[in-house]
């Protein structure tokens, strides 16, 4: 038993010694490891510094290289831009010259157009003036046409009237702006009807106002062969309203006494109207007949 215990104690001492040695080794190893870690940390710091310096150096070199490259690129770009600028400058100078020429040509054309416009405007003004003149002339022509139409109508009416006149009357030439209408047939029935017929044709039973008129009518009657001794041509003198006071029916002026024939008027109350007797002198006759057996003479202003 004692041997076993002794053996056990020896083993325990050996184990403890082993443990102590191991612990010592471990401690030494830890110290060594700690030293190594410290060294490694320092070396790492140095490496970091070296790496940082390296990186900085590398970056600077890279930056220098990049800068050089960029600088070269910029120079190349500048050269390209300069070449392009020179080319564009030449091109645009040519275009500017062309545009200047075009501008000068355009300005000249504008001046020509302005001058042409002035000429055209002047011509337009003249045409407007001519148009206004033509318009006025056209208006005047229309008025003249209307007037001529009226004149033509009047002339036609006058012509138709003269046709009717010449169908009924022999017409004298003009004296003092008047003509004398002598009936072709014996139309005198009474003084009222004769005066109405003369009025219808724009006149009245003839009135002998002066010697020239009296002689003119004598010649007219003579030229129409109405100068027979028994011929009586009624005119416009009467004393029907007042016996012995002879006046013209239309004008109410006194008849000229010198134109009466001898012993005329001499018919009294039975003969109250005036007539040419045988073309040469005036005679009094009855104003009312039972039949149309005499002619009469109208005096018609033109």
From TrEMBL:
SMART domains associated with the record: CLECT (SM00034)
UniProt keyword annotations, A-Z: Coiled coil
Listed name of the protein: C-type lectin domain-containing protein
Signal peptide extent: none
Keyword Nucleotide-binding: no
Domain C-type lectin: 175-299
Record organism: Biomphalaria glabrata (Bloodfluke planorb)
Xref: InterPro entries: C-type_lectin-like, C-type_lectin-like/link_sf, CTDL_fold
Name of the encoding gene: 106059283
Residue ranges the record marks as coiled coil: 89-158
The keyword Phosphoprotein is annotated on this UniProt entry: no
């Amino acid at each position: 038993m004692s041997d076993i215990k002794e053996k056990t104690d020896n083993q325990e001492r050996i184990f403890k010694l082993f443990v102590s040695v191991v612990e010592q080794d471990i401690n030494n190893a830890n110290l060594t490891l700690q030293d190594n870690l410290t060294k490694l940390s320092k070396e790492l710091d140095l490496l970091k510094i070296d790496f940082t310096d390296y990186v900085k150096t590398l970056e600077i070199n890279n930056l220098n290289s990049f800068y050089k490259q960029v600088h070269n690129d910029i120079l190349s770009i500048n050269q390209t831009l300069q070449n392009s600028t020179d080319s564009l400058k030449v091109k645009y100078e040519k275009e500017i010259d062309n545009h200047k020429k075009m501008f000068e040509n355009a300005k000249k054309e504008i001046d020509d157009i302005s001058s042409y416009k002035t000429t055209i405007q002047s011509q337009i003004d003249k045409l407007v003036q001519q148009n206004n003149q033509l318009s006025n002339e056209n208006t005047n022509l229309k008025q003249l046409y209307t007037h001529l139409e009226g004149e033509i109508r009047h002339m036609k009416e006058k012509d138709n009237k003269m046709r009717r006149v010449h169908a009924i009357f022999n017409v004298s030439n003009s004296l003092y702006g008047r003509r004398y209408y002598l009936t072709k047939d014996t139309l005198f029935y009474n003084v009222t009807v004769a005066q109405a017929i003369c009025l219808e044709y724009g006149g009245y039973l003839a009135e002998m106002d002066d010697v020239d008129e009296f002689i003119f009518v004598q010649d007219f009657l003579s030229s129409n062969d109405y100068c027979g001794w028994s011929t009586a041509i009624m005119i416009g003198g009467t004393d029907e309203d007042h016996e012995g006071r002879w006046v013209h029916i239309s004008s109410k002026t006194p008849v000229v006494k010198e134109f009466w024939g001898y012993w005329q008027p001499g018919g009294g109350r039975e003969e109250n109207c005036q007539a040419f007797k045988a073309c040469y002198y005036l005679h009094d006759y009855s104003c009312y007949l039972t039949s149309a057996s005499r002619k009469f003479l109208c005096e018609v202003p033109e």
